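Quick bug: ATP-binding cassette domain-containing protein output formatted oddly.
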Amino acid sequence: MQAIEVEGLRKEFKVQKNREGLKGAIRDLFKREYHQVVAVDDISFSIPQGEICGYIGENGAGKSTTIKMLTGILVPTSGKLLVNGYVPYKEREEFVRRIGVVFGQRSQLWWDLGVIESFQLLRKVYRVPQNDFQSRLNELVDRLQLSELLHRPVRKLSLGQRMRCELAASLIHNPSIVFLDEPTIGLDIVVKTEIREFLKDMNQRYGTTILLTTHDLQDIEALCSRVIMLDAGKVIYDGSLDHLKETWGKGKEIVLQFGTPQQIQRLSKLTEGMGVQWEMEHPFQGTIRIPSGTVSVSQVLGRLVHEVEISDMKIVETGTDEIVREIYKTGSAEVDGVKVHA
Ligand SMILES: Nc1ncnc2c1ncn2[C@@H]1O[C@H](COP(=O)(O)OP(=O)(O)OP(=O)(O)O)[C@@H](O)[C@H]1O
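Here's what came back:
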């Protein structure tokens, strides 16, 4: 069974127009004018159980609106939607017991209560049997290092501590699908890494399906095998991260420092037939560009090490953020191998 199935999903908002000036404001009082915003524009995709899928796009692309429809907070304008076999907005009570949600910008914990009391309240909301709750809690406390935090009021936690508690809260009922909206926002690199490790491990152990919205492309690199990219409410890419990188990435670059001065002609000769390009910054420093899908870094270095004195080197890979920028610039990408224009 697919964990998430979406077909022709659409959400329009009616937004009030504000007319200009005093006259306009007075006219607005008597006759409101509205215009439509299409936040999600007939999108379709399905996500199998156990997949970690990144859901990305620029601000206002329609990510949060999708997540809100998938979690039953918003009712779609049109289209089909099944999550865990449920229509989220119709069967809310049953449905929410089977999903977990973290909105990085908003808390689901009670601000003035101790963390453990929030967890106990959630146990009641989700109707988790006491035994299951206790064993699940023990595991989460251990994995997310929460033992010191359990009796502190939520308002006294640091952002990173709170986010670890938010994750535990969203998982206390062992949901099979988790929606994470910006779960690492504002966190330092250490906490980010811990959270990524935890999510990966949870996915492997329990086969939890995760839909992850993020602006941090490192999250995607660390976790997601698949990426769905939205632009202006439409899906502009749906496929593997590797394919995204291969198609849109510029490959790798090796920046080399030489112990003795070098000439580009000699270096080019050494790497002849490999399809790489050289550029010399000065006789002691050169850069090799390796297009994706050609040769490996070690193959290139293999040709050089015995011929050239290399004193230092740095390998640079095109970041996913650059790739995304590139796609936005051209306004098109491939969905399932078919060229789609945004
Ligand atoms: N309740 C609402 N009423 C009117 N318009 C809305 C509402 N919610 C969202 N929108 C509009 O719908 C579009 C998509 O917004 P959405 O919040 O889904 O984007 P997003 O991709 O999550 O952006 P961000 O990364 O900034 O969170 C935007 O143009 C936004 O202004």
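Actually, after a second look the formatting is fine. The first strand starts at residue 2 and ends at 17. Closing.
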